[in-house]
Each structure stands twice: as C-alpha cells, then as structure tokens.
C-alpha cells in the first residue's frame, strides 16, 4: 500500500486494503502515477458511495437533471456519437496473428503510443475506482471487472447497467483473475466534452485482460464493461469452453403455455435486438450481451452479463415499443443521451410527438435547419441517441434474471438488416447448419457505428465488431460447443427488414412477435414446417392463425408467398461473398461441407423449379 498512501486519504486506503489484492493496488498506483488525477475516490457497493457518483455526474456538468424525477441528460461530443471502429484496435504481440478481419496494432507500438497520450491525462480531474461483476453474483459465469475512469457519467452509467462487485472482488482472495478498464475522457471543452477527439484510442490488451480507452465519452467507446469487456470475454471464453455472444436473453410466453421457453438472439446494433427482447407479453433477461455454457445435464444455459439497458431511443414510441416508451416517460433513474431538450422536456426522432423547433442537443443550441461544419442539416436528436436504465425497473423483467445458473436455452436466433435476401423467419436444418447460418449473417450498417449507413457488411453471429480471436476459431468453437450439448437449442434466422421493389418494408415492426412465437411453437413441436435448402420455413396457415389471434390482423397468402419465397440468385451471391470472407480462415471442415451442399441444393432447386424466386408451396416436403 506504501506509495498509495501519498495519493489516497485514510478511507480510500481502507477500502482498497480491505480487498487484500496487490494486483488492484498496483493498477491503481500505476494509473495515478501515469494519469496524474487531482483526486481519487474509491467506490464500494455502499449506497452512499454510489449516490456520490451520481451527484458528481450532475455537479461536474456531465449530466443535467430533467423535469421527471430521476431523469438526466448527457451529451457526447458531436463526433463521438457512435462506436469508433477505426480507432479500436487489438494490441498484437510479436509473432501472433489474428487474421484479416480484426483491426490490430503491434502491441509495443500501441502501448508506447497510448501511454504517451495518457501521461497527465487526468490532471485537474477526479479519478473514480469502481468494482463490478459481469454476470450474476456468486455464479460460475461471473467475472469481476475493475473500472477506473475520470468520467462520472461513465461510472454512473455503469451503475445502472451492471451489478456492483466490490464484494466479488473481496472473494477473489488476492487473485489477478479479473478484467480491468482504464478510461479518460481527456481534456474537456466548455460543454464538458472530450476536446482531443483526434487522439481517441481504444486499445485492447488481451495479454493483460485490460482495455485502455481515452479521449472519448460515448458509452460504446468508454464504458469498460460494455463492448470492451465483450471483447475480453470473447478471448477468454474462446480459450476455455464456453461462448460470449452479442445476444439478448428472453422468455417467451404464448397464451396457454405453462412454462417459459428461453431464447437468445444475436442481432447487429440497431437491428431490433432490444425491441425483440421487449415484445409485449414476453419477459426480458438481457438485451445485449450473454455468456453461454454447457451444463452438467448437457443443456445450454445463458446469463445476461449486464443488469441494465443502453438502448437506442430513435423510433421508440407508444405504438411500436409501448413497454420502453412507458419506462422513458415515468419517474426512475434514467440517463438520456444526445436527444433534444426543450424546457427540460426530452424529444427524440420517431417518438410520435410534435417536436419544438429549437432547444439544446448534441450540437449545442439547436434550431430547425441548423447545419454542421460540413453543411449537413443537424436533426433534432442523433439517430443513435440512447437511454440508460436499470433492468429491474421494468415490469416485464423475468423472475430468473438474477439466477446464478442463468436459464436453459431452447432457441437461438440470428437476425440481420437485410433488404433483399433472407426470409422473415427460418429454422436451421440442425445445430451445425444453424452455426453456419449465424456465420453467414450479413447486415446493412446503421448509426450505431461511425461511417456510412446502409452498406451491406458481413457480421458473423452479429459479433464481428467484437471478435478478437481468428474468425475461423470463433466459428469452430460454436460447432464444438454444439457437440457437447445433449439438449441442443433450435437455431433460427430472422429478417425484419425485407423490402419490396418500391423500397418500402414488406412487414410491420410488430410482426416480429409472430416470427418469435412461431419459433417457440417449433421448439414445442406444435407446428409443421416446409423444408427448403436454407432450412425450415413456416406454413401459411400457422402464420395466418398467429397474425389473427396474436396481432389481430390479416395476413394474406400473397404477402406470405412474396416474403417467404426462396430468392435463389440472391442466396447464391451471398454464398460467394461468404466463401471469400472465410477463405484462408482455419475453420472446421464441416463449415465448407455445408457451404458446398447449400450451394448445390440451391442450384438444383433453381433448375427443378425453373425460377430463382421459389414460392414456399413449391417445396412439397413437410415435417
Ligand atoms: C450497442 C451496440 O450499443 O452494439 O449495444 O453498439
Ligand atoms: Mn450491442
């Protein structure tokens, strides 16, 4: 503890020494010496410590209170509104290779660069040291995570999003078996936003189970426990025997069913993951990141590693997302980010309410027609604007959300933003084929990452942005995981974004409820399906029944045939793209067998049916 005595007061010293962990002391000491903060606070699970962080976020101006009790607003810098993939790099030790899909920098070079930028970066600021637990407490899934940051907004957000873990750290008994994250927002401008945005860096150091992130505030870049821990956990799990996935966990409850059926679902950012987990009538365990393990009885169990939601607010309105909307308009501890505030009232895009023509938003004072320095009109709120809430605040939270054993998973969904290729819902032929379909996931880019929107990108398991092991290994691990399962979840794909020739969506947002209930019914063996080369698709009558009974709306056979036709040419083009992506990757042979087989089956079907848009009823085999 010796050198720390120079920097910490008695209470802070006691909080650290209670943990009896020299690794933590060394990290704190090292960060203090490098970043040179003016003050250091150690935050335990104590409610006074936690209240201190929240107050600091308000006192420092990083958040401001709004009219509704517990609601605050935070703004990220104008150029810091989404995940910054270009500056997020894995530090690569000499002699190691991760393949061409992962953004890397030589470890020595990266560390030299970031240590230089971190020198004195916290001068004049207060450094917060926080202890959290990824996953439920007292669980085989849990991973303790240490967060050091000079942003009270970051520390406060994590309080809403993760389980406090000071006690979990105590249980480590001095072991270094934890993740750690060092963040600094860097120098701030007069709006309290990171000034040196050109020097933002997010460097992932797998050797030390740590991430160093500086000169940014947007949560996807700054919060250690969110997308940064996701990357560390992908590395850890892929060298062990479990999976770390960009997945929701939800309970499905069709009318009349006595037991809850649990599903996980992987969707790229801003492609309906949260709104699927929040479909009215169902229960939520998590909306973003899950750990999956094979249990002793051969079943697959999953937990939510988070305990809150950092959700996209755009298009959340009382019709499309009634549960979330209700939550955002009633008192509770909640942080909005990057939306418009007018007279302390929040406004966002697609909220279904008339918005004022001026106010304050992520660009500062805003008025309708305001342009940025590139001449682009600034909308009233950012498209990737967010809300941050605790999960336990929701009425629809599942009773098993904190179960240390997680829940048994019976279905897994892979969904992408795909305007022209895949059907709305489809069940894989078996586990390996399901892994293949997940590995083939493509999606059009969204505002959740910096850069152009609407560009089709390959996104295996919706996790490519976060995969830090060679892609082939990541996919092979899913194949091996399945071999160990005695009770394999069924695997499905969904596509909520199919468009007609006029460019309009062919299905409504709420229709996802039918696709999910159909998948659940398949798990229970209650509905038949049509076997096609890409998997099992629904029968018209089953969907018609669900549309009528669940959504109270008609579903025409014409629309069914249009959206469930197998688009052979598009699918074959996709297979060519997939082949190029995985070429040179060390993936299990079965992956290539499935690809070749899928291609042959599609080609044969095209010849047999003499069309490249094969309507569902042309495939006669039902099971
Ligand atoms: C998220 C993301 O915020 O994936 O969940 O970007
Ligand atoms: Mn996500």
CATH architecture of the largest domain: Alpha-Beta Complex
Gap from first CA to last CA: 67 Å
Helical fraction:
25-40%
Strand content: 15-25%
Count of domain modules = 3
Summarize the biggest pleated sheet: 9 strands, mixed
Unreliable parts: none
Tally of individual helices: 17
What is the residue-mean pLDDT, rounded to a whole number?
A: 96
Explain what you see.
The protein folds into three domains: 2-61 and 80-237, Phosphoenolpyruvate Carboxykinase, domain 1 (3-Layer(aba) Sandwich); 244-307 and 401-618, Phosphoenolpyruvate Carboxykinase, domain 3; 311-393, Phosphoenolpyruvate Carboxykinase, domain 2 (Beta Complex). Helix 11 (431-439) runs antiparallel to helix 12 (471-484), helix 13 packs across helix 14 and helix 16 runs antiparallel to helix 17. It is built from 17 helices and 33 strands. Helices cover 30% and strands 24% of the residues. With 623 residues, the protein is of the alpha+beta class. The structure holds oxalic acid and manganese (II) ion (MN). Residues 246, 269, 288 line the site of manganese (II) ion.
Task: List descriptors.
623 residues; alpha+beta; Phosphoenolpyruvate Carboxykinase, domain 1; Phosphoenolpyruvate Carboxykinase, domain 3; Phosphoenolpyruvate Carboxykinase, domain 2; 9-stranded mixed β-sheet; 17 helices; binds oxalic acid; binds manganese (II) ion
Summarize the structure.
The protein is α+β, with helices and mostly antiparallel strands. Helix 11 packs antiparallel against helix 12 (471-484). The protein is globular.
């Amino acid at each position: 503890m010796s050198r720390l005595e120079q920097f910490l007061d008695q209470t802070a010293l006691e909080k650290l020494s209670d943990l009896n962990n020299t690794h933590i002391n060394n990290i704190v000491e090292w960060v203090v010496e490098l970043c040179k903060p003016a003050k250091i606070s150690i935050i335990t699970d104590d409610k006074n410590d936690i209240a201190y962080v929240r107050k600091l976020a308000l006192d420092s101006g990083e958040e401001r209170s709004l009219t509704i009790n517990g609601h605050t607003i935070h703004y990220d810098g104008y150029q810091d509104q989404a995940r910054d993939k270009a500056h997020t790099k894995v530090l690569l030790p000499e002699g190691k290779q991760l393949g061409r899909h992962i953004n890397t920098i030589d470890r020595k070079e990266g560390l030299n660069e970031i240590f230089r930028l971190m020198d004195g970066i916290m001068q004049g600021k207060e450094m917060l040291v926080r202890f959290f637990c990824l996953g439920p407490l007292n669980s085989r899934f849990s991973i303790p995570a240490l967060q050091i940051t000079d942003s009270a907004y970051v520390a406060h957000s994590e309080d809403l999003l993760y389980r406090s873990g000071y006690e979990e750290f105590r249980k480590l008994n001095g072991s270094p078996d934890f993740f750690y994250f060092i963040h600094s927002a860097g120098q701030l401008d007069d709006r309290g936003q990171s000034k040196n945005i050109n020097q933002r860096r997010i460097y992932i150091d797998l050797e030390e189970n740590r991430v160093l992130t500086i000169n940014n505030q947007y949560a996807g870049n700054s919060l250690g426990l969110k997308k940064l821990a996701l990357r560390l956990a992908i590395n850890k799990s892929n060298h062990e025997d479990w999976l770390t996935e960009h997945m929701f966990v939800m309970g499905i409850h069709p009318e009349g069913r006595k037991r809850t059926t649990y599903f996980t679902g992987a969707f790229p950012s801003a492609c309906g993951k949260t709104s699927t987990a929040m479909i009215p009538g169902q229960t939520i365990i998590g909306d973003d990141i899950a750990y999956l393990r094979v249990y002793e009885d051969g079943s697959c169990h999953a937990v939510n590693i988070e305990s809150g939601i950092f959700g996209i607010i755009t298009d959340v309105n009382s019709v499309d997302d009634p549960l979330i909307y209700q939550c955002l308009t009633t008192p509770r501890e909640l942080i909005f980010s990057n939306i418009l505030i007018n007279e302390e009232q929040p406004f966002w895009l697609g909220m279904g309410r008339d918005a004022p023509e001026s106010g304050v938003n992520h660009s500062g004072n805003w008025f309708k027609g305001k342009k940025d320095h590139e001449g682009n009109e600034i909308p009233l709120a950012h498209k990737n604007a967010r809300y941050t809430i605790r999960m336990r605040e929701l009425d629809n939270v599942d009773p098993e959300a904190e179960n240390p054993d997680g829940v048994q998973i019976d279905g897994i969904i892979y969904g992408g933003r795909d305007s022209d290729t895949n059907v709305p819902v489809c069940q894989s032929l078996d586990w390996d084929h399901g892994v293949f379909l997940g590995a083939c996931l493509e999606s059009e880019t969204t505002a959740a990452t910096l850069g152009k929107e609407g560009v089709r990108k390959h996104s295996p398991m919706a996790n490519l942005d976060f995969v830090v092991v060679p892609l082939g290994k990541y996919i092979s691990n899913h194949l091996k995981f399945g071999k160990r399962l005695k009770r394999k979840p069924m695997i499905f794909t969904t596509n909520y974004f199919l468009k007609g020739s006029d460019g309009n969506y062919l299905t409504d947002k709420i229709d996802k409820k039918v696709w999910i209930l159909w998948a659940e019914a398949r798990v229970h063996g209650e509905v038949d399906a049509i076997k096609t080369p890409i998997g099992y698709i629904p029968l018209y009558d089953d969907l018609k029944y669900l549309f009528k009974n669940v959504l109270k709306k008609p579903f025409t056979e014409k629309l069914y045939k249009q959206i469930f036709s197998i688009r052979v040419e598009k699918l074959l083009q996709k297979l060519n793209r997939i082949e190029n992506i995985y070429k040179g990757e060390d993936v299990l042979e079965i992956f290539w067998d499935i690809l070749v087989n899928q291609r042959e089956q599609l080609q044969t079907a095209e010849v047999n049916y003499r069309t490249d848009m094969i309507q569902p009823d042309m495939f006669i085999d039902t099971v």
